[in-house]
Design goal:
Length: 95
């Protein structure tokens, strides 16, 4: 997050990362591809809708996070991506 120039709440980030469990340690699963529609659909269904309980404005939030992390950034780490989604959707109370 520091490399991206983003300020963050370390406590909230730790909770979001802990919620990801073993996915953090899998080389393929620990990153999000903004150019893969199937992956973004999975993020929408499995994280935003199931974990956060949000069903509207999902595409806008995902696109905003993709922009924040940078289109040319190939290493969009899932923990950071999900943390930014939580902030974007105002779902901090979920954690």
């Amino acid at each position: 997050m520091d490399k991206l120039g983003l300020s963050y709440d370390a406590g909230l980030f730790e909770k979001v990362a802990k919620d990801l469990g073993p996915a953090l340690y899998n080389t393929d699963a620990n990153k999000v591809s903004c150019s893969d529609d199937a992956e973004l659909d999975t993020v929408r269904k499995n994280f935003i809708e199931k974990n956060l309980g949000k069903s509207d404005a999902n595409n806008a939030a995902i696109n905003a996070v993709c922009e924040k992390m940078g289109k040319s950034n190939r290493n969009k780490y899932r923990a950071i991506f999900y943390y930014l989604l939580v902030k974007e959707l105002g779902a901090e109370s979920t954690y």
